[in-house]
Design a protein that fits this description.
This protein is α/β, with parallel strands linked by helices and 396 residues long. It is 20% helix and 28% strand. The strands form 7 sheets. Strands 3-2-1-7-18 form a 5-stranded parallel sheet, covered by helices on one side. A 5-stranded antiparallel sheet has the order 21-22-25-24-23. A hairpin with a 4-residue loop joins strand 19 and strand 20 (276-278). It binds flavin-adenine dinucleotide. Residues 12-18, 37-40, 47-48, 50-51, 80-81, 104-107, 121-122, 148, 232, 235, 264-265, 281-284, 286, 310-312 line the site of flavin-adenine dinucleotide.
């Protein structure tokens, strides 16, 4: 720790990214005052199990760290940050002067129009209340065949619910991995006894069901809206911080206002690797970026430039995605998509930019290294599942 270390660090947001920031600061030896302000009235907890092990009843609690006292920080839980002033964070209960401020307020689900009751799956309270409704025979309608919709459909079908998933696009997961690859997951729904309605926009949520665009009606006992999230930055709109689909931060996670940083789902960081601003909604980002952030809060100048990583467990399969396929010009299949083990590889020219795997964890690790090193690859070898991905490097 340098002699110029800040005396007071305030963290807004008590999710994984906020907690990890506090942990990393202390593990670096930062001895100053830390205050964490979290809107939820409970200690930080993990979200990925909410749509998986918690929804199927394997676990009831996903608290991340039982012992918060050992961190020597003030945890102000059940308190909401409302405004950033000049060196001061204002909340619904008070004011917190800071030398450095970290914004880690995550994301919130998008709601659909209409007067009917729609549930969401973002918080542990959402998840526990939703789990209680998953009883045999209940008609559950999920709007959105994204990651969360697919995972919830898996758990609900296993509980004996009658599940329908309504999706506006022509394939599941279109926003995340594109319609061509997403379409391969379509048959998994029917295999699990889940009805999948594609190309069907929803007009509004009404009492007892959904009004569909085009005049249709879909009856439901419970409706869950899972059409994506938006960064939780509305409370910053009157602040001088530059917002660009989240808090715009540079490679060192610094915002446009000196001394203010952002991390996790709410941060749109500049990636030198991909040459664009990125905002991920990935657990791995919330886990790892705080190490870089803490070093910078303490006076360092480290860069955060990851190869993004995400996983999903759905319909008895493990999906893993590494990289970013948005700049790719070619999609290469690896293995038989009708089997339980295959991969989709995206390339820009001769370089691998992203890999999605189903049941092939080794391809994820090897693919990540190829993306990191940006070496040219042999497309024929990439397409051949008998050749380990790491051996696809072009000779010469
Ligand atoms: C059901 C579910 C399943 C998921 N599954 C996966 C998965 O399989 N793989 C994967 O990679 N990722 C998954 N994710 C995504 C992953 O959980 C997130 O990327 C991660 O939680 C982001 O952490 P965060 O700390 O940035 O934000 P959050 O976890 O959203 O935490 C932000 C916290 O800040 C609080 N807050 C908001 N506004 C304020 C305010 N004004 N003042 C104070 N506090 C505030 C919020 O209440 C929240 O507690 C899943 C997410 C969900 C919801």
């Amino acid at each position: 720790m340098t002699s110029s270390s800040p005396e007071r660090i305030v963290v807004a947001g008590g999710g994984l990214a906020g907690l990890r920031t506090v942990e990393e600061l202390r593990s670096l030896g930062y001895a100053g005052a830390i205050t964490l302000i979290g809107a939820e009235n409970r200690p930080p907890y993990d979200r990925p199990p909410l749509s998986k092990q918690l929804m199927t009843g394997e676990v009831d609690d996903t608290t991340l760290r039982a012992e918060l006292d050992s961190l020597g920080a003030a945890f102000r839980l059940g308190e909401r940050a409302e405004q950033v002033g000049d060196g001061v964070l204002r909340t619904d209960r008070g004011e917190y002067p800071f030398d450095r401020l970290v914004i880690a307020t995550g994301a919130r689900p998008v709601a659909l129009p209409g007067p009917g009751r729609q549930r969401f799956l973002r918080t542990i309270d959402d998840a526990l209340a939703l789990r209680d409704t998953l009883v045999p025979g209940a008609r559950l309608v999920i709007v959105g065949a994204g990651w969360i919709g697919a995972e919830l459909a898996t758990a609900a079908a296993a509980s004996g619910c009658r599940v329908s998933v309504v999706e506006a696009s022509s394939a599941p997961l279109t926003g995340a991995i594109g319609a061509e690859v997403g379409a391969v997951t379509g048959p998994w729904y029917a295999e699990a006894g889940v009805e999948l309605l594609l190309g069907q926009p929803v007009e509004s949520v009404e009492e007892g069901g959904l009004a569909l665009a085009g005049g249709g009606w879909l009856a439901a006992d419970e409706i869950v809206t899972a059409v994506g999230v938006r960064p939780e930055v509305g409370w910053l709109e009157s602040s001088p911080l530059r917002l660009e689909n989240g808090v715009a931060v540079d490679e060192q996670l610094r915002s446009s206002v000196p001394g203010v940083y952002a991390v996790g789902d709410c941060a749109a960081f500049w990636s030198a690797r991909f040459g664009r601003r990125m905002r991920t909604e990935h657990w791995d980002t919330a886990l790892r970026a705080p190490a870089v952030l803490a070093a910078n809060l303490a006076g360092g100048s480290e860069r955060y430039d990851p190869v993004p990583y995400f996983w999903s467990e759905q319909f008895g399969r493990m999906l893993q995605y590494v990289g970013d396929h948005r700049g790719a010009d070619r999609l290469v299949w690896r293995g038989d998509t009708a089997s339980d083990r295959w991969a989709a590889c995206w390339l820009a020219g001769e370089r691998l930019t992203a890999v999605l795997t189903v049941g092939l964890p080794r391809d994820v690790q090897q693919g990540r290294r190829l993306i990191e090193s940006a070496v040219p690859v042999d497309v024929g070898k990439v397409a051949d599942p008998a050749v380990p991905l790491r051996e696809a490097v072009l000779a010469g």
